[in-house]
Amino acid sequence: MATNMLRAAATATGGPDDRRRRGRRGVRANENIAGWLFVAPVIVILGLFLLLPILMALWVSLTDWNGQGSPFTSQVPFVGTDNYTRLFTEDGLDRRDFMTAIRNNIYYVALVVPTQTVLALGLALVVNNRLLKGKSFFRTAFYFPSVTSSVAISVVFLFLFANSGAVNSLLRMFGISGPQWFADSRGVLHLLLGVVGVDSPPTALTQGGPLGLTWWEWLSGPSVAMMSIITLVIWTTSGTFMLMFLAALQNVPVALEEASTLDGASRWQRFRNVTLPMIKPTMFLVVTLGLIGSWQVFDQVYVMSQGDPAKTTLTPAYLSYRTAFRDFDYGSGAAISFVLFLIIIVLTLVQRWVMADRDPDRPRWGRRRRRTPEGSAK
Amino acid sequence: MTALAERPATPTRRRGNRGARTLASRFLGYAVLVFFSLVFLYPFVIQIGNSLKTEPDAAANPLSPIPDQLVFDGFIRIFTGTNFPLWLGNSLLVTLVATTGRVFFCSLAGYALARLRFRGRSGLFAAVIAVMAVPGVVLLIPKFLVLNQLGIYNSYSALIVPLLADAAGVFIMKQFFESIPVSVEEAARIDGASIFRTFWSVVLPMAKPALITLTILSFQGTWNEFPHSLVSVQDPSLFTLPRGLADLVSGSLGKGTQYPLKLGAALLATIPVAIIFVVFQRYFVRDANDGSDKG
Which residue ranges run through the membrane (chain A) (predicted)? Predict the structure, then answer.
């Protein structure tokens, strides 16, 4: 009996034999039923609240449903791909809002991703310094903001960036009078151009531009209000990414760094030519996770600015919510969601593709790790 | 092996040659660490300090952590003038039920995917991986549609049931179950224990670290969950803490900015997660490290 079981287990792991119907039905048949029973709750919940809703929303994005009654009756007007084309090809408020949201999010990504990556790596390098004590305290301190509620933290930052808030009183200590953060829709790039003397936009840039916004509008940069949300997000996410970098840095063999030091490499050269190549996979992971996450910004916008002032903190995620639940245009809202979905899925696929591409490297990593004793690799 | 042996030896050797430089860089290192600790923690200090101030005091000295005059007005009004106790109760209920369910269902599914041989297993696992990539924010409208269609919109079921399973949890548990030796389970099975019995009394007790990790992540996730409550309920008596807080901020308070009150409410909403974070810190850290290992 026991040997039979073991043989069954052995063939089962063997691959193709797996499928072969065994003479003794007992164990296998049991496992077939038990397996499905065990996964059933998860399948039902994810199917019902994830897959089915996506299909339903796909249908709704092709209709003009206004929230009254059920969207799956013949009374609901079917409009084909109108909701999508209005976002891209038809000149109008819908396209203007959508493109404004895309512009805002692009500037948001352009500031958040590089800053949080550099900050996280910098902090990880300092915390990882062998000569410093109290690492675990600093690690905890930097990581703590990441685990708190996005809504609660947004409330704190609303206070920090209030007109008479902490940030402005800090700036006053340096003799700077801070802006009215959440009322200021001026673009940062426009402000910078103002500093060098370009006060009014050149007519060439206001005459036209792609996708319903003028060139001048595309080139606004993030608004002052958006800068406060950007600050908040960098502040909350850097800690998580720091931990990832820290784990990667601890896997860099000390001997390698020592060797390069003996060879006369400067600190910068050592970082550039030894450390950085060793943590490249983590760097890539952090950047892509950052890209994926920063296209999903929603909670902070909802709590802090609701897309205001002058729609400069509108993001596609918030716009889809607002279009559906405030303007009761569920079709357009769902269409915006799917465009956003597509953007994020493309980024995710790029990440998985490049990560999988690195797998041939794996054996080398494995060999190096095996040489280090248990525990020190982690 | 070499790495470990060399670690303590090298710095000593180096210190001889360039003691001054090491000292300077150590000082610089601490300066950077202390500066950033302030950046990351001082907002919380400000939050605590200002929640104990009067409103004019908070507006006049927002940077100072010490109240001019210690007042508990904000906190008293949180409990008497807002629906905070109700939100707290709802949050506790949702978090406890959702976390329990999530840990149980994810372990079941993770175990099946790791150990049981059934038709369609690899396809299911691929589906779990695919589902993990679905970004939460694009599900806002879809979730509302399905809850509406099922007739449970605006109910506790709408708040809780969709949170009962999560693909990442299944993934974590599957990875863990694959890492523990099969021999113990086999012994139990040979002794005639049913599959569920083996899972419940033999495998689960061995999976304690993974269960703790998953419990903490689910607790933190459901306690902080905001967008889901936004599209699943509308009745103020069903608001959870994050939803209630967002409601306070968007002006349901009436006159004035009332920052001490808002900061106090946000503080109270943060405390449970903060306590869990401090107590179970290594489980949080492990999770983030696993993330990088996966890459």
Answer: 33-60, 106-128, 140-162, 224-249, 278-298, 330-350
